[in-house]
Amino acid sequence: MENTIVIKLGGVASDNLTEAFFEQITKWQMNRKKIVIVHGGGHYVTKMMQEMGIPVETKNGLRITNQAALEVTKMVLIGQVQPTITTAFQKRGIAVIGLNAGDTGLLEATQVSDRELGMVGEITKVKTTLIEQLLGEDIVTIIAPLGINKEYNWLNVNADTVACEVASALNAEALYLLTDVPGVKNEAAIIPEIASSDIGYLQATGIIKGGMIPKLASAAFAVKNGVNQVIITDSLSTTGTKITNKVAIR
């Protein structure tokens, strides 16, 4: 969708919702940009599970999601995190609405092949009709990272993955993956731009590692599937690292 910008809010959502963040949103809207936000919430889910005495288990950086963990995840993402974000927009006079997979089956998903992860899914289809209708009315759309499979079971989905799938389905002009670092680093220096074809090389040489590996894999998927560019940064006001589908030249 022309002039669409997708933003993934990561970490502690309230840390991202600064005045500079809203100033950029307002500026984009004045320039007729359409805004979609996919929010995470792992920090809040972990905190709630610990308070409820539910064990927190992970595998390869992904939360193992049994039935109890799934119910807490739904409760926290839809009942706590999303309202916090929408209220922050409302306070600034910005029209906004929160959506989840239960709204017109927005995000269709299937369970990942690694069954040890439990009720963890991957997106198979983004139904864009409702999103496009809302964007046509200049309503900022906030989406929770949960999917529903063909049996109408809810699944926990990685927020980066959801953001990339949504951005690709909308053919967004840009996707911002907001994280807790200012970009992809080579030692202390931020790499200003990475070609998607270079990601394997950077991983093999150890320049990218840990949690940045799946984030860049998601970014590469997005730029190969209709998104003009992906920016990994800790703020909308900083340039961070741009991921494009250009052919790498080394």
Automatic annotation (TrEMBL):
Residues at the site labelled Transition state stabilizer: 8, 215
EC number(s) stated in the UniProt entry for this protein: 2.7.2.8
Location relative to the cell: Cytoplasm
GO biological process, one term: L-arginine biosynthetic process via ornithine
Main location as per UniProt: cytoplasm
Presence of the UniProt keyword Amino-acid biosynthesis in the record: yes
The Aspartate/glutamate/uridylate kinase domain, residue ranges: 3-234
Gene Ontology cellular-component annotations: cytoplasm
Binding-site residues, substrate: 41-42, 63, 156
Annotated InterPro entries: AceGlu_kinase-like_sf, AcgluKinase_fam, ArgB, Asp/Glu/Uridylate_kinase
Record pathway: Amino-acid biosynthesis; L-arginine biosynthesis; N(2)-acetyl-L-ornithine from L-glutamate: step 2/4
Catalytic activity: N-acetyl-L-glutamate + ATP = N-acetyl-L-glutamyl 5-phosphate + ADP
Keywords: Amino-acid biosynthesis, Arginine biosynthesis, ATP-binding, Cytoplasm, Kinase, Nucleotide-binding, Transferase
Molecular function GO labels: acetylglutamate kinase activity; ATP binding
Known function: Catalyzes the ATP-dependent phosphorylation of N-acetyl-L-glutamate.
UniProt-listed PANTHER family: N-ACETYLGLUTAMATE SYNTHASE (PTHR23342), N-ACETYLGLUTAMATE SYNTHASE, MITOCHONDRIAL (PTHR23342:SF0)
Homology family: Belongs to the acetylglutamate kinase family. ArgB subfamily.
Protein name: Acetylglutamate kinase
Gene from which this protein is expressed: argB
